[in-house]
Fold this protein.
Amino acid sequence: MDMKGKRYNMNSEGKGYCIDKEEKERSNLIELSFEEMEQFLQSLGQKKYRAKQVLRWIYKGATDIDDMTDIPKELREELKKVAYIGSVEPKEKYVSKDGTVKYLFALSDGNIIESVLMTYKYGLSICISSQVGCKMGCKFCASSVLGFIRNLTPGEMMEQVLAVQRDCQTPIGNITIMGIGEPLDNYENLVKFLKLANMPGGLNMSLRKINVSTCGLVPGILKLANEGLPVNLSISLHAPDDAKRMELMPIGKSYSLDKIIGACNIYTGKTRRRITFEYIMIDGFNDSREDALVLAGRIRGMLCHVNLIPANYVEGTRFKPSTREKMEVFENLLENNGISVTIRRELGKDIDAACGQLRRRVIEKEREKKEAEVEKK
Ligand code: SAH
């Protein structure tokens, strides 16, 4: 196949892949799998073994084709004509007292996303965004306030990992796709990203070290169960019954808790991976003894773990976190009913590390600045 000079990556809607004859844009090398890289280099008249070399540079953090010093200069010149190494641009960085680091990145179209680096006993973990904004409209979430702009490409997801790794100069051991966006609403790009992350010669990360968090898109969960990519799955449950869940999460109207739990059982059956149920605790809303017992009754016997998280107060919402005492009562009730449960340690509270908060603050600040300028004129 002659692909010389042709674009070999995302099509214009950011969905799926194409080799577009007309496109003048160059290929983002980060979006190529091992086999695609081999084909791409062969199309430039190169030997297959170069793919390994190029990938080694990319995953070492190179951002410029000229950094690849063991690649002959002529090939680098040729590559630069048809390809580039995509990178997100660090705009701001905040370091919390507890060591959590929040990054604001600018994409090539100017949109802003967030990534968070957390340090655990077992190593570094990065939380990446999967979309610019989010369509799901959860009532407690800062990302919902600004709405949805677009999907991230697999390259843009990987670029967050590589940019943070470059900055902290330590290999990252875990990836959670739990930042801005709903990963299963960007399914094809998510799957391509997971394959890239798992690729030998690339990041080579075990799928056990990757966690995908969803608000409960049942068709996506079922599709992922059959993908042959046994990643850890987290479900943002947040309520013990459908009525309460629908109050918090509009998606609850499309998929009932029974349907979600059914899909989770299929997921664990196929992958043997334990599901994590995320449960944000909201004062006086979902934190009573009865709520705990109803929840326990629903998930008893499943291969699962419950993470209790105090709701992070987001301006403009009516949800306040439960007290520590109430959370502990809730935890004990679940435990006594045979459910594996922990109260999640809160990280980066002093730097707006919770989902979408920082991006929202920065965007609203910029908006106010612009409005003030217009008023002045
Ligand atoms: N859309 C995916 C992943 C992004 S949200 C999902 O729903 O899982 C990441 C996590 O942060 C979700 O569990 C979400 O419910 C939670 N979250 C969002 N806003 C929050 C808040 N104000 N306080 C606590 N957790 C919040």
Notes: Residues 10 and 17 are 5 Å apart (CA to CA). Residues 1-23 have pLDDT under 50 and may be disordered. The pocket of S-adenosyl-L-homocysteine is lined by residues 136, 138, 140-141, 178, 182, 213-215, 236, 278, 280, 309, 311-312, 314, 354-355 (CB under 6 Å). The chain is about 35% helix and 20% strand.
